[in-house]
Amino acid sequence: MSARERRQVASDAGLSKERVVAEAVRLADREGVGELSMRRLARALGAGAMSLYYYVASKEELLDAMIDVVFEEIELPPEETDWQSAMRRRAVSARQVLARHPWAIGLMESRTSPGPANLRHREAVTACLRRAGFPVLTATHANWLLDSYVYGFALQEASLPFDTADEFADMAEDVFLPQLPVDEFPYLNESAAALVAAGFDPAEEFIFGLNLVLAALEPLRVPT
């Protein structure tokens, strides 16, 4: 089929690049990126697989566009506040976005043809750190450290067998504690019991760790 014929088929199906990418993101959110194929995507769109290649030339180009959608959803660090507050807001936003799109965690740093939202995001983060007084190389170190923390936490959070503090408490009491006899695992037993009694919410761990990372970076900047 010629490019013109593919274009006509795509037009007849009501396709656009935005619609193709949006449906791909929805499929990945629901089924995982490993289940995504051009044929599977075409079926979901009610179109022929070949018609999709008018909008994305390959699976890799589709993944580039999907990751760009994810970056577009992450809040940029605001310019009107101090660097720690700005980077905290950006990190919190990134964690929330990756919770919606867990398939993206392992792809965020893998793209060699980044899209415009990806590049805008990285420019804004670097600008925030540089304006705060971090030298060029130190800003790079800080960026890597913050991203590693956010991605690592998001990956761990996505694999947890519970979602809420109540679910954690139920699992700790019904599943974890029975496996932790106090004579064999005194410290683990003590920790599990104390967390349940305190109403521990695992989601709060993100801010605790993030604040430590930001505080550790503060002495490395050279205020202007």
TrEMBL record:
Signal peptide: none annotated. The keyword DNA repair does not apply. Keywords: DNA-binding, Repressor, Transcription, Transcription regulation. Transmembrane segments: none annotated. GO terms for biological process: negative regulation of DNA-templated transcription; response to antibiotic. Residues 37-56 bind DNA. InterPro entries: Homeodomain-like_sf, HTH-type_TetR-like_transc_reg, HTH_TetR, Repressor_TetR_C, Tet_transcr_reg_TetR, Tet_transcr_reg_TetR-rel_C_sf. GO terms for molecular function: DNA-binding transcription factor activity; transcription cis-regulatory region binding. Residues 14-74 form the HTH tetR-type domain. PANTHER family: HTH-TYPE TRANSCRIPTIONAL REGULATOR RUTR, TRANSCRIPTIONAL REGULATORY PROTEIN. This is TetR family transcriptional regulator. It comes from Planobispora longispora.
